[in-house]
Design a protein that fits this description.
about 550 residues, alpha/beta, 5-stranded mixed β-sheet, two-stranded antiparallel sheet, 21 helices, 7 strands
């Protein structure tokens, strides 16, 4: 150190130069240190985000699919926050009126053992009498008398019954040449009307194949194997051809269902991806989309599926208002409220003149906070999940009370609006406290971006709190897609959309899918007038008017053994 000091120059100007040089070096080191600290902080935030994403993906891949906060997340609450939350809950519980004594006691009753439901009464019964052995009965003598039976039941099953209908068409020939019109030759009775002319598939078989694929998610190759086990050879290509041939005869039914879509106060929309092969001008790896539209009058609901290669706003625009723009179809609705998730195409669609309001989906907003509740801000995200849960509690009560639209508006203004205001205050308070790219930051950003649409349900009794109706309608398609994976051609995707529309509309109107399809496929070839076709629409058919599958009226004991 002494040698370094002795080596310094004595000239003041040189010393000043050294000092400035050292000052610049120190400033450079400080800048480098600051940049490194900022980089470390940025990397730390990025690591936290990636850890959150990894945990989210792990839960999506291996965890339950329900949108609820895991119980394990309660361990992540800060002790002070937990005590404050417990205090708030205790205060709310004290403020509420106590339930009647009988209700309180009823709520504390321990759950009993699960009770077995009785077997359906409409099923045929096979009685088997079980008695003690002859030797034991002889030993009993006259000291015992018969007093009745102890009855129990088991549910048995027989393989499905596939049978052949043999049509015998009467033929007549003239007895001699003098018979009037005898030169025409043989007269033969006309064929029975079929939805697919000359096909070997009866309406009931077509209904079973359609139900198997589009209700039970059984691909055609699996149904081919099921038929083969029964000794019946029906290649999957044949079944696919039958389904494609249904498009033409079902076109009037499809047009009538689609026209019904705009006759209600609201339309809910959702979409999901679909891989379609052999699309013109597109690679087989490109995604196409299946859209679902839920609308129609509340007492006659409609579920309409539409296949399209695009996810653009022009697709729902054409489905909903294409006929209106071309000057055909029904008159424009007086008021139509659109309900959807936050996808940008729906905001474009909301600018159509026929749309008077655009309602958002609280389920989507809640889902993002549920995802954040498994990350680094578990306790904070759980607060918002609880707040949104209060809204759903109010909606559940209104459903149980079967409240009409006006009552729903009054109740929502009185009870839901204060909760919504608390949610908005919470969002404004936390938006500046969390990183925008974290799971919680993204959840808050989504809620704030969609805030105007999330308020619409408060002022419209016909609007639901969420878009679950559309999500539930498209779920069978998503389940089926996991099994059959793709559509082989655009025509196949269009057929799938048509048949899903029929099935989901039938289900929405309380009809059993197979029974309705069997009824439709049998009666449609006989429908010659618009009124006859109108009577076959799912919302015009009563469940008790449908033919149920034939059941055995008697069963021999040897058959069931």
């Amino acid at each position: 150190m002494v040698s370094k000091v002795q080596s310094l120059p004595n000239d003041p100007e040189q010393l000043h130069g050294i000092i400035h040089q050292l000052h610049d070096q120190l400033a450079g080191l400080n800048r480098a240190l600051t940049e490194k600290q900022e980089r470390i902080e940025s990397d730390t935030k990025r690591i936290d985000q990636l850890l959150e994403y990894i945990e989210l993906l792990r839960r999506k891949r291996f965890g339950p699919s329900a949108d609820r906060v895991p119980d394990s997340q309660l361990k992540l609450f800060d002790e002070t926050e937990l005590e404050a939350l417990i205090g708030e809950l205790e205060a709310e519980a004290t403020a509420q009126s106590k339930p009647p004594k009988d209700e309180a006691n009823a709520g504390n009753k321990p759950k009993g053992q699960p009770k077995r439901s009785p077997l359906p009464a409409h099923l045929p019964r096979l009685e088997r009498i079980l008695d003690v052995g002859e030797d034991e009965k002889a030993a009993m003598g006259d000291d015992w008398r018969f007093i009745g039976y102890d009855v129990s039941e088991q549910l048995a099953d027989l393989p499905r019954q596939t049978y052949v209908i043999t049509y015998k068409r009467a033929k007549y020939a003239p007895v001699n040449d003098s018979v009037e019109d005898g030169e025409a030759g043989i007269k033969i009775a006309p064929r029975a009307p079929q939805i697919i002319p000359k096909a070997i598939a009866h309406a009931s078989l077509l209904a079973s194949i359609v139900t198997g694929k589009f209700v039970d998610a059984l691909p055609l190759y699996r149904q081919e194997k099921i038929f083969a086990r029964e000794g019946i050879d029906i290649p999957r290509q044949t079944m696919a051809g039958w389904l494609m041939q249904l498009q033409k005869p079902l076109a009037p039914i499809a047009a009538a269902i689609k026209a019904q879509l705009l006759r209600g106060p609201t339309t809910k929309i959702d979409e999901t991806r679909l891989q379609v092969l052999n699309e013109p001008g597109r690679d087989n790896t490109q995604d196409s989309f299946m859209w679902v539209f839920c609308g129609g009058p509340p007492e006659q609901p409609v579920r309409w599926f539409e296949y399209a290669p695009s996810r653009a706003a022009s697709v729902p625009q054409e489905v909903l208002f294409g006929a209106l723009a071309s000057g055909s179809g029904s008159d424009p609705p007086v008021a139509l409220i659109l309900q959807s998730d936050g996808y940008s195409a729906y905001h474009v669609l909301a600018n159509a003149p026929e749309i008077i309001a655009h309602a958002g989906c609280w389920t989507h907003a809640r889902r993002k906070f549920v995802e954040a509740a498994g990350g680094r801000h578990a306790s904070v995200a759980a607060e918002m999940v609880a707040l949104i849960g209060e809204l759903y509690g109010i909606e559940k009560r209104l459903r149980l009370e079967q409240a009409d639209a006006d009552t729903r508006v009054r109740e929502r203004q009185a009870f839901s609006r204060p909760v919504v205001e608390r949610i908005k205050t919470w969002l404004d308070r936390h938006v500046q406290r969390v990183a925008p790219k974290s799971l919680l930051g993204k959840a808050i950003g989504y809620a704030l971006n969609q805030w105007p649409t999330l308020l619409v349900f408060l002022d419209h009794g016909a609007v639901e709190i969420d878009n679950n109706e559309a999500e539930n309608a498209i779920r069978p398609f998503v389940v089926g897609r996991k099994n059959w994976l793709f559509s082989g051609c655009p025509e196949g995707a269009q057929t799938s959309a048509l048949l899903y529309s029929l099935i989901e509309t039938a289900k929405a109107n309380g009809l059993e899918p197979w029974a309705y399809l069997n009824h439709l496929f049998e009666q449609l070839p006989l429908a010659r007038t618009p009124e006859a076709i109108e009577a076959l629409l799912p919302f015009n058919v009563r469940p008790d008017a449908l033919c149920t599958p034939p059941v055995l009226t008697s069963i021999r004991d040897t058959d069931a053994a």
